[in-house]
Amino acid sequence: MTLKLTDEEQAALQRRAELDGISMQEVARRAVREYVARAEHRDRVGRAAERVMAVYAEALDRLGR
Predict the structure, then answer these.
(1) DSSP 47
(2) SS3 content of the chain, % helix, strand, coil (to 5)
(3) pLDDT at residue 1, rounded to an integer
């Protein structure tokens, strides 16, 4: 995989990596892991909300009136 960044993105990534004392590659890898973890969490929360709405559909309908 090749990651193309703008000059501004590259500079910001380099500054952040230097401040954190890690490589730019490690910063990017952490960002990918965080992105995937957040998306998976969002999916789990969505599925849980759907189950709750299905179980309590009648009660939610009555509350909405």
Answers:
(1) H
(2) 80, 0, 20
(3) 87
User: Look-up: residue for tokens 């730019």?
Assistant: 24
Burial of 13 (0-12, 13-18, 19+ CB in 10 A): middle
Give CA–CA dist 25/49, Å, rounded: 36
pLDDT-derived band at 24 (thresholds 50, 70, 90) equals very high
pLDDT for residue 7: 97
Task: Pull the structure tokens for residue 11.
Answer: 């500079």
List C-alpha distances in Å: 64 to 53, 58, 61: 13, 10, 5
Of 14, 36, 9, nearest in space to 25 by CA: 14
pTM: 0.75
